[in-house]
Specification:
This protein is of the alpha+beta class. It is built from 5 helices and 5 strands, in the order ααββααββαβ. Strand 1 and strand 2 form a beta hairpin.
Length: 165
Protein backbone atom coordinates (compact mmCIF):
# COMPACT_ATOMS: atom_id res chain seq x y z
CA UNK A 1 0.00 0.00 0.00
CA UNK A 2 1.49 3.30 -0.99
CA UNK A 3 1.14 6.74 0.53
CA UNK A 4 0.51 7.90 -3.02
CA UNK A 5 -2.91 6.20 -3.03
CA UNK A 6 -3.81 7.75 0.32
CA UNK A 7 -2.71 11.20 -0.89
CA UNK A 8 -4.79 10.81 -4.07
CA UNK A 9 -7.86 9.95 -1.98
CA UNK A 10 -7.22 12.97 0.27
CA UNK A 11 -7.05 15.21 -2.78
CA UNK A 12 -10.33 13.77 -4.04
CA UNK A 13 -11.93 14.39 -0.63
CA UNK A 14 -10.75 18.01 -0.71
CA UNK A 15 -12.19 18.40 -4.22
CA UNK A 16 -15.45 16.75 -3.11
CA UNK A 17 -15.69 19.13 -0.15
CA UNK A 18 -15.23 22.12 -2.46
CA UNK A 19 -17.88 20.81 -4.85
CA UNK A 20 -20.30 20.24 -1.98
CA UNK A 21 -19.73 23.84 -0.89
CA UNK A 22 -20.64 25.00 -4.39
CA UNK A 23 -23.62 22.64 -4.41
CA UNK A 24 -24.95 24.07 -1.15
CA UNK A 25 -24.45 27.65 -2.36
CA UNK A 26 -26.53 26.82 -5.46
CA UNK A 27 -29.47 26.13 -3.08
CA UNK A 28 -30.58 22.79 -4.52
CA UNK A 29 -33.96 21.27 -3.79
CA UNK A 30 -34.42 19.14 -0.68
CA UNK A 31 -34.70 15.88 -2.62
CA UNK A 32 -31.53 16.55 -4.59
CA UNK A 33 -29.67 17.48 -1.41
CA UNK A 34 -30.96 14.35 0.36
CA UNK A 35 -29.83 12.14 -2.53
CA UNK A 36 -26.34 13.61 -2.28
CA UNK A 37 -26.33 13.13 1.49
CA UNK A 38 -27.24 9.46 1.02
CA UNK A 39 -24.40 9.03 -1.48
CA UNK A 40 -21.91 10.70 0.90
CA UNK A 41 -23.18 8.55 3.78
CA UNK A 42 -22.60 5.37 1.76
CA UNK A 43 -19.15 6.63 0.81
CA UNK A 44 -18.42 7.19 4.50
CA UNK A 45 -19.60 3.65 5.28
CA UNK A 46 -17.39 2.23 2.53
CA UNK A 47 -14.34 4.00 3.94
CA UNK A 48 -15.34 2.84 7.42
CA UNK A 49 -15.35 -0.77 6.20
CA UNK A 50 -11.81 -0.33 4.84
CA UNK A 51 -10.69 1.27 8.12
CA UNK A 52 -12.34 -1.47 10.22
CA UNK A 53 -10.61 -4.18 8.15
CA UNK A 54 -7.17 -2.71 8.71
CA UNK A 55 -7.94 -1.88 12.34
CA UNK A 56 -9.00 -5.49 12.97
CA UNK A 57 -5.67 -6.69 11.57
CA UNK A 58 -3.62 -4.36 13.76
CA UNK A 59 -3.35 -6.60 16.85
CA UNK A 60 -1.74 -9.29 14.66
CA UNK A 61 0.44 -6.79 12.79
CA UNK A 62 1.55 -4.96 15.96
CA UNK A 63 2.07 -8.14 17.97
CA UNK A 64 3.09 -7.35 21.54
CA UNK A 65 3.68 -3.67 20.81
CA UNK A 66 1.09 -1.82 22.91
CA UNK A 67 1.89 1.73 21.81
CA UNK A 68 3.80 3.02 18.84
CA UNK A 69 4.82 6.63 18.24
CA UNK A 70 5.34 7.51 14.60
CA UNK A 71 7.84 10.07 13.26
CA UNK A 72 5.05 12.62 12.55
CA UNK A 73 3.96 12.50 16.21
CA UNK A 74 0.92 10.28 15.64
CA UNK A 75 0.40 7.45 18.10
CA UNK A 76 -1.20 4.05 17.68
CA UNK A 77 -2.22 2.24 20.86
CA UNK A 78 -3.73 -1.19 21.46
CA UNK A 79 -6.11 -1.59 24.36
CA UNK A 80 -7.83 -4.84 25.19
CA UNK A 81 -10.86 -5.28 27.43
CA UNK A 82 -13.45 -7.94 27.98
CA UNK A 83 -17.04 -7.17 27.14
CA UNK A 84 -18.99 -7.19 30.39
CA UNK A 85 -22.75 -7.44 30.72
CA UNK A 86 -25.40 -8.77 33.08
CA UNK A 87 -24.02 -6.74 35.97
CA UNK A 88 -25.15 -7.62 39.49
CA UNK A 89 -25.17 -3.95 40.52
CA UNK A 90 -26.55 -4.38 44.04
CA UNK A 91 -24.13 -7.15 44.93
CA UNK A 92 -21.12 -5.32 43.50
CA UNK A 93 -22.22 -2.04 45.11
CA UNK A 94 -22.49 -3.86 48.42
CA UNK A 95 -19.00 -5.35 48.00
CA UNK A 96 -17.54 -1.92 47.22
CA UNK A 97 -19.32 -0.36 50.22
CA UNK A 98 -18.02 -3.15 52.48
CA UNK A 99 -14.46 -2.70 51.21
CA UNK A 100 -14.60 1.09 51.55
CA UNK A 101 -15.86 0.67 55.11
CA UNK A 102 -12.92 -1.67 55.82
CA UNK A 103 -10.45 0.77 54.28
CA UNK A 104 -11.93 3.64 56.31
CA UNK A 105 -10.75 2.01 59.56
CA UNK A 106 -7.21 2.52 60.83
CA UNK A 107 -5.81 -1.03 61.16
CA UNK A 108 -3.69 -0.11 64.19
CA UNK A 109 -6.18 1.88 66.27
CA UNK A 110 -9.51 0.72 64.90
CA UNK A 111 -10.49 4.38 64.54
CA UNK A 112 -13.05 5.18 61.80
CA UNK A 113 -11.28 7.61 59.44
CA UNK A 114 -14.19 8.50 57.13
CA UNK A 115 -17.84 9.32 57.64
CA UNK A 116 -20.63 7.42 55.90
CA UNK A 117 -21.09 10.48 53.67
CA UNK A 118 -17.42 10.46 52.63
CA UNK A 119 -17.63 6.75 51.84
CA UNK A 120 -20.81 7.28 49.79
CA UNK A 121 -19.12 10.02 47.77
CA UNK A 122 -16.05 7.82 47.34
CA UNK A 123 -18.30 5.15 45.76
CA UNK A 124 -18.34 7.36 42.66
CA UNK A 125 -14.63 6.63 42.22
CA UNK A 126 -15.58 3.04 41.41
CA UNK A 127 -18.75 3.35 39.40
CA UNK A 128 -20.53 5.78 37.15
CA UNK A 129 -24.20 6.00 36.29
CA UNK A 130 -23.88 3.66 33.28
CA UNK A 131 -20.79 1.56 33.96
CA UNK A 132 -18.39 0.31 36.62
CA UNK A 133 -14.78 1.48 36.57
CA UNK A 134 -12.79 -1.72 36.13
CA UNK A 135 -9.32 -0.39 37.00
CA UNK A 136 -10.60 1.37 40.11
CA UNK A 137 -12.40 -1.76 41.34
CA UNK A 138 -9.23 -3.81 40.80
CA UNK A 139 -7.23 -1.25 42.80
CA UNK A 140 -9.30 -2.01 45.89
CA UNK A 141 -9.14 -5.75 45.32
CA UNK A 142 -12.61 -6.34 43.91
CA UNK A 143 -12.81 -8.55 40.83
CA UNK A 144 -15.61 -7.08 38.70
CA UNK A 145 -15.85 -10.33 36.74
CA UNK A 146 -17.51 -11.87 39.81
CA UNK A 147 -20.43 -9.49 39.29
CA UNK A 148 -21.14 -9.74 35.55
CA UNK A 149 -21.05 -12.01 32.53
CA UNK A 150 -17.67 -11.70 30.83
CA UNK A 151 -17.70 -11.90 27.03
CA UNK A 152 -14.93 -12.17 24.49
CA UNK A 153 -11.79 -10.06 24.68
CA UNK A 154 -12.03 -7.08 22.35
CA UNK A 155 -9.09 -4.98 21.24
CA UNK A 156 -9.58 -1.36 20.31
CA UNK A 157 -7.17 0.61 18.21
CA UNK A 158 -6.80 4.24 19.19
CA UNK A 159 -5.30 6.64 16.65
CA UNK A 160 -4.13 10.00 17.95
CA UNK A 161 -3.21 12.88 15.69
CA UNK A 162 0.07 14.66 16.30
CA UNK A 163 -0.29 17.37 18.94
CA UNK A 164 0.86 20.05 16.52
CA UNK A 165 -2.02 19.46 14.06
Amino acid sequence: MSNETINEIRQLITKLDQEIGEFVRSEPGAEEACNLLVDINFLKRDLSIVYDSLSAAMPKLMGRIQKLSLPDGSEIEQKSAYERKGWQHKELGSAVADRLNQLAVDPDTGEKLKSAYEIAVEMLDYCAPSYWRIKELNKIGIDPDNYCEVGELRTSIIVRKPKNQ
